[in-house]
Design goal:
417 residues; mainly alpha; Growth Hormone, Chain: A; 17 helices; globular; disordered C terminus
Length: 417
Amino acid sequence: MTNSRAGWAVWRHRDFRWLGLGQGLSWLGDAFQPVALAAGVLLHGGSATDLGVILALGMATRVLCMPVAGVWADRLLPQRIMVLADVVRFGSALGISALFATDGWSVGPIAALTVISSAAGAFFMPAFIALKPNLVPAADRQSANAMLTMLSTGAMIIGSASGGALVAFVGSSIGFLINGVSFAFSAFCVTKVRVRSVRQQRSGFGSELRGGLRAIASRPWLRAGTLSATAYHLGNGMLLVLIPSIAIHQLGGAVALGLVETATGVGGLIGGIVAMRVRMTHPLRLAWPMLAILPIGLLSYVWPQRLVVVLICTIAGYLALMFLDVLWETAIQQQVPAEQLARVGSWDALLSWAVLPIGSALAGPLAGAFGIDRVFVVACSAMAVTALLPLLSRSTRDLRSSPATGEEHRPVALPGG
């Protein structure tokens, strides 16, 4: 156990301050985007199908680009990829803002700009993964991961709560303009980050692409966790569809759904605080069982189906989820060579995200055939079981937190910077 003051001390590191500041505002802008896009399309004559097509194209683009982006993030300085990605997303957001402002929008241009922005986001993420461990000394990495998780979750809470009111007051065009400005600010902050990054010696692109998969397959604990997460997110994709339906029809309508979203964020914030304070010799022994708390708690949507119980269980479940996320990310940073981090992170994310839409697509037909409560219980039960499966691997149970190596943390100017 460490004290909270030590956890907050990560802000004393200059590079972490700049990245945290930029990403905090960028995540806040991102929280406006779903509301702005939905309102922009649906309030300007578009249909739910139009919105679905745009969202599906964006998700598909992100998934397809992720492995390629991981290779480039391990080849190049991550800061340069992040700045370029933010500039592209800035331009895309301004373009969408202009289209909604003139009422001359159509699905094609909005979808095209969404695809461009999603591709840029796919390149940003693995570069961000590769950069994070270099921002602070090894002993502070778990605290840094927890702090960034708290920033992201806090931005989601504030953005979700204020996004609807903001878009209703000033319109979708201004919502996307704010999002674009947040990307520009993020790019500026990334240019202020000065750390040395380990880059791999280049080989063939295909070999490097496969190298990310080999890095996962060669580590039993990482392989078991990745496969478990893939199965877990298949059920999670179903819950993303079923939870809003139950909340709206059984728990109190849109107000109940808004409270559930807030509880999700509150749980994530608390989970970040807990992860920042806790240090364990064998972190995954506790982290994976903690993940099972989320689906078990979500069974409260079926019984007793009372809003206050659902909110308490949601807070507890997302506390556990964020706790696992921080410990899992820290374990990868400690055990995977720096020159492979981006590829491992991109494959890890790809395998999880790719099955989400499959689960979401199956939820409606299965609920129609067998009943929503029955499908919900089966999905939650399967998720709880898959959360425990990594513990069958001795490598997972025996994985130890790497002690601080005493390595010196030396911020340096980037070449040409």
